[in-house]
Amino acid sequence: MEVQKIMTGVLLLLFLSWAVTVAADVDCTTVTGFFTACSTFITHGTPDPLPGSPCCDSMMSLNMIAESGNERRFICQCFMELITTYNPNATAIATLPGFCGLSLGFILDPDTDCSSVP
User: Which regions span the lipid bilayer (predicted)?
Assistant: First the structure.
């Protein structure tokens, strides 16, 4: 159990350092990469991601990148592309930040207008 906590901490630090590194150069490939840790939930709808899980840690890193309005709008557009691509799983993608206790500064919905994100 202690090893799992240490590994989670190391993983979080890696994600956070990666988030700082890529913050200046965000692209949709980077944003999509953060979803890899959430693939089981996105594909199957279970188990729900919990704060402290690798999925939520990657969402936290994504949230750190979304500091400015331009970055939030860009990340919003990437989310919308994912929702369009994985239409049957759109609800799972849209609920990820909420499950993790995060707000990305915009509502994830297929009708969201990313150009209006503050």
Answer: none
